[in-house]
Structure formats: C-alpha cells, structure tokens
Amino acid sequence: MLDRSLADWLTLLESRHPSEIDLGLDRVNQVWLRLLEQPRLQQLKPPLAITVAGTNGKGSCIASMQALLLQHGYSVGTFTSPHFLAYNERICLAGKPVGDPLIVDAFEQIEAARSEHSLTYFEFGTLAALVVFYQASPDVMLLEVGLGGRLDAINIIDADVAVLTSIALDHCDWLGDTRTAIAGEKLGIARPGRPLIIGEQDYPEGFAQLVADTGAEPLFVGTDFTHTAGDLFSCQLKTADGSLLIESLNGQGLLPVNKTLALQGLLAAGLVINAQDSRKAMSNVSLTGRHQQLNYQGIKVILDVAHNPAAAAVLASYLEPIEGKTIAVASVLEDKDWLGIISPMSAVVDDWRVAQISDSSRAHKGQSLLELLYNAGQAGRLDTSVETAFIAAVNSATAADRIVVFGSFHTVAAVLNLILAGVSSE
Q: How many C-beta atoms surround the C-beta of residue 213 within 10 A?
C-alpha cells in the first residue's frame, strides 16, 4: 500500500465515491463487521456509546457532555462533523483532536477491509473514528449523527443512550418535507429498552406513536426532566433512584436546553455526576461557531453556523439591541431555505453582505442570494467571496457596530480562517 499523508487520503476520499451523500447502512456496516474481525479490534471492550441526532443543538449537546465527562474524570472520545480548520477536529480523545498518524492508520485499516465496497467521505471518517475509539478504549464515545439518523453511518452502532435535540425542517430532499417524517428518521437512532432523551417540546403530528414504535425508554424535557432559563439556570434531572437538582449553572453561550440534555443523557447512561463538577464544566464549555464572540480590529464579531430557519430564529433572539448597526455576512448551501433564514434575522440586521461559498459544489448561487434578499425587502450587497464580504463589513463598521457571520459551517470557517491568519482589513 502506498504511504499516504492525511491530506493525500482526504483528497482521494473526496473524489472517489460518486455521491457526496449516499444514505444507507449496508455498505458501511459490512466493512465495520470486517474490521471487528481484525486482531487489532478483537477482544476489545467497546466504549459506552451515546449517539446524538437533531436538526439543531447536536454539537452543543456533545460539547457539553464532553466537558462534563472530563470534569468528572471520565475518558472520552468524540466524533463530530464537519470541521472548521482541520479534519482532525472531527475525532477527539480527551477533548483534543487526534494526530494525523492515528487517522491515517485507521484509514489504512478501512482500505484493507473494504474490498469491493465503495464508501463516502463521511462513511470513511465515521469508521476511522470508531477504529480510533475502539483502540483507545475511552470510557465513553460521543457520536454526532451527520444527517438524519436511521440511515446515517453512525447508526451502525447500537447506542447505549440516544439523544434527540430538536426537530425542524432541514435536508428535506433526504429526510422528508414534514417534521413528522424528519422525526421518524432521527428517531432511528433509538434502541428498544434503552434510554432516549428528547429535547424537542413542539412535537410534530404523530410524535408520541413514533417514539413508542422505537421501543426505547423515553425521557422528555419539560416533563420527565426540566430546566429554567437565564444567565444562571437550574435543572431537575431524573436519576435511577429519584432526581437530582443542580442549581446555578452557567446559561450563557450554549443554550441551557442543550446543556440539560447533556446532563440527563449522562445520568441515563448510568454515569455518576455531581453538582459541583457540573457547574465547573458548564462554566467553561464553548463551541467554535456557536454564538462565538470575537473582537477583530476593534469590531465585535459573532460567529454562528445557523443554517436553517429554526437556528436563525434562535440566533436572532440571542442578539440583544445595540446602539450601532448589525451587519450580516452570510451565505448558505443550495439546499437551504434562504428565505426562511432571512425572515427571523431581518428584524435584527441593518445591512447584509452576501457571497457565494467557494469551497463547496453545493453552494447557493451568489446572485440568487442577493435577489431573494431583495425579494424579502432587505438591503444588501453581493461580494466576490465570503472573505471579501467580511473585510468589507469590517471596513464599513464602527466600534458601536457588530458583524454577525452565519449561514453555514463553510461561511464561518472562511471568516475564522481569515481572522486567525491575522489578515488586515486595509
């Protein structure tokens, strides 16, 4: 086998499979079963698995669980997607991205095992994370669903606990065009007789029956466990023998509901947590691109990957009134409801700068972004790239203004790379 660097592997995987998204478990599961027969993965006790699905809030829930586990002294592996700056961000041990050699070694094992099976970029990455985790044997592995749930590659693992954060219209071409259909896909990660933690409170039609059909043991936020709101919040959690009240948790940054789901998910898994360590963990947890606040050349910048109407509504509610202007730098992929995203943001944005995402073949056309913006009664300008849109926004802003970058991981990553590179706005 040729010696390939991680960059070489990723270039190969991006071009090899005919479809970027190819839902289904048969191919990836057959390769995983072959991997489990290999001596390096045999005899190893699988880590406790917690799988997280949902339209929004998955990353925040997993980041909160990771912080809680580390604060309580548990070892943890975390698989998330996509990444912002480096592929290694997707596979973490003890809260840190693993090095290139571990991923390359996993890729080589997968390549040797896959035989006639063609795998997508995401499927290869999912299997790589599982290989890394099974070899490292952390106490817990946290697995974020990439798309949907039932047919997502992550679902080859029978999770000990499943978490469903939220249900909203997104990825309708793959998951269905109703919240009921989408809920059914996401609930596919649940397993009979095992805990299912549900964070959605606005249930779609038929939701109770969908949950019952899973055979799982559901816990619903708002009824089985609860939380308050505010900068300091409390939550009442269900335990195996009663309940646990944790007060004075940090409610800033990541949403209290997602932090509460994390706490309840760990308790449902049988893990031991306490109020003091939970408060410490929640006071420090943050996540790149989720309500992330930076200062760039004297201007306040907020980065948020909000890429559907529900997430945009949350972002809009998060933006408090300011004396100056709010300048949006935004772009989305072509399958996103751009008009639906504009709608909640229009009440808080004074000026829009849009541009076509340059590093994805699925980018929404720039001119169409602008036309739909005008159709919604919003003033805006089309720039040649997300980066130039951001620089133009910085140059037009005063110290009283703020810039909000949102719409896609690609959009936030472009600006984050620019900021970290120290690019001047002049």
A: 13
